Amino acid sequence: MGRLGTGIGWRPEIADAVERMPGVEWVEAVSENLCPDHLPDSLLRLRARGVTVVPHGVSLGLGGAERPGPERLSALAARAEALGSPLVTEHIAFVRAGGPLTATARLEAGHLLPVPRTRDALDVLCENVRVAQDSLPVPLAVENIAALLSWPDEEMTEGQFLTELVERTGVRLLVDVANLYTNQVNRGEDAAAALAALPVEAVAYVHVAGGFARDGVWHDSHAHPVPSAVLEILTGLAARVAPPGVLLERDENFPAEEELREELEAVRTAVAKGRAGAPDTEGFPAAGPAAAPETATAEAPGGKVTGTAPDGGGTRTARAGLDADGTDGTDGGPAEGGTPGSGDADAGNPYGTDDAEPTNGADGTEPTHRTDHAEPTGDGTAGARQRLALAQVALLSALVAGTPAPEGFDRVRLGVQARALAGKRADVVAKVAPELPLILGAGYRSAFAAYARGRPMRGSHRRDALDFAGHLLSRGPGDPRTRRELRRWWLERSGPVPPGRHPAARLARATRRALLRR
Question: What stretches of 31-172 show up as alpha helix (H) in DSSP?
């Protein structure tokens, strides 16, 4: 793969601005938001100009206990071929758990969750990556994610985990420096040390994004300006290796076009600064000290959780516990207009801002691809898969279904992560069903938070929107006008054929017209 250069994440909301922006050499689009037979006109125009487009997947769950589903892999491959892309990218994360391996109901996270850095998880991940590589027409690169919590009893550092993954599979790396910063703040992991341990020859490209501090942790929102601390990590990376490509991600709270241009220029400047001081070798020198921006300290039961927050001096202290009602007082809503969450925001899908079930029907029914299959054996990972499956379903159940926290996890951080997932879930439902926030008005977020508490997703976010509306309708009378509008919305989308298009409805209208003509 050749040089990509400087790019920006393509999103429909900023498509026109991206087309006008000077110096954009490539773009990245969320794969699950694209239909290969009906690509957006903006992407077609960019392709015609010679701009490279890379599909960025968010729903494979390469770090999950099950093998990646063949339909999801086929969908990713089809998008790469339709766009003529030189590579595709995904995440080192799990996004669902349960099913046959655990004899439990399948649970969807609706977002990217961290994989434990253990031998079991690495063995499973390596095999899943090989399965994906064999199914894709172009090389695969995988991204390190941000996390709000840590797994207990991890056996490797992030650098060791990624290095062995590359050595065993030959996969390329999408290095997200914003995620390294997030993990430095939230998990105390030195970003420079992580970079120093990476095999530089495997770097495919780099992500840069912004976030915000809340609950004593850093949320990788992709909805705020890139902080100087993240740019400093990018400069440190560029001082050690010339990144083939660097891409700015922005998924929410889109600023004015001029501000986006300035952020992109700041990214170029950070890379140029690093390259100006680069040694002759392309390898990483020994790890230097990590960037040391403002310290954020969160009081927590059983001790303090400390980290860093960008751009400023002094010390910040925040309460990371729950309010009396089990929330953080924000109804799961965004801080400063951003999307709460951990890992990679990747707006545009159920693990970002639209529906990531590529085979869902338009009526919001369950996806045609199911992974309720017996786990095949033969690669030596059967035992590791079952152990990983049990650990992941226990964690995800605690986060989305209210079951007890697994042993060894920080309960305060689990609460922060659970609220972040609920907020992300509400955000995505609002994107795939924008009529619901209009119908419910200011009460949308509190109503959704009450619905989601203890009710895991049953499938896609479109299914979730229907379940939410059905739940509200089952609760009895409310505001009559709101109830009528909600019932009309639910009826139009819950059946295989909208009421107005059903043959019986057309016959009734025709009969009425005939009677009126007499």
Answer: 41-48, 70-83, 119-135, 158-169
- Encoded tokens for 53: 């487009």
pTM: 0.78
Specify whether the CB–CB gap between 472 and 489 falls below 8 A.
no
Integer angstrom CA distances of residue 375 from 101, 383, 393 = 7, 11, 16
- Domains parsed from the chain with CATH numbers: 5-337 (3.20.20.150), 435-518 (no CATH)
Residue, of 445 and 294, whose pLDDT is higher = 445
Nearest to 412 by CA among 317, 325, 303, 338: 303
Mean per-residue pLDDT over the chain, rounded: 81
Backbone angles phi, psi at 67, to 5 degrees: -65, 150
C-alpha 445/C-alpha 422 separation (Å) is 10
Output the 3-class SS for 417-452. Answer: HHHHHHHHHHHHHHHHCCHHHHHHHHHHHHHHHHHH
Longest dimension (CA), the chain: 92
**Cα–Cα distance for residue pair 118/100, rounded to 1 Å:** 22
Question: Would strands 5-9 and 26-30 be described as parallel, antiparallel, or unpaired?
Answer: parallel
Task: Please check whether residue 151 is in contact with residue 187, taking contact to mean a CB–CB distance below 8 angstroms.
Answer: no
Q: How many whole angstroms separate alpha carbon 125 and alpha carbon 94? A: 10
* Lowest-pLDDT choice from 25-29, 134-138, 289-293: 289-293
Residue 261, pLDDT above cutoff 50 = yes
CB of 208 within 8 A of CB of 265?
no
Alpha helices for 170-208 (secondary structure H): 177-187, 191-197
Contact 364, 350 (CB under 8 A): no
3-class secondary-structure state, position 388: helix
pLDDT grade, residue 513 (50/70/90)? low
Neighbours of 505 (CB within 10 A): 13
Whether 238 shows a pLDDT value over 90: the answer reads yes
- Please, what is the end-to-end C-alpha distance for the chain in angstroms? 73
Q: Does the pLDDT at position 290 exceed 80?
A: no
Cα gap 195→277, rounded to integer Å: 17
Q: In degrees rounded to 5, what are phi and psi of residue 6?
A: -100, 130
**How big is the chain, counted in residues?**
518
3-state secondary structure 274-340: HHHCCCCCCCCCCCCCCCCCCEEEEEECCEEEEEECCCCCCEEEEECCCCCCCCCCCCCCCHHHCCC
Q: Alpha-carbon distance 416 to 421, whole Å?
A: 9
Label residue 252 exposed, middle or buried (CB < 10 Å: 0-12, 13-18, 19+): buried
pLDDT at 448: 94
Name the percent of the chain lying above pLDDT 90: 66
* Closest to 345 measured CA to CA, from 174, 146, 175: 146
Q: Cα–Cα distances in Å, from 92 out to 42, 68, 233, 333, 421?
A: 29, 12, 20, 26, 18
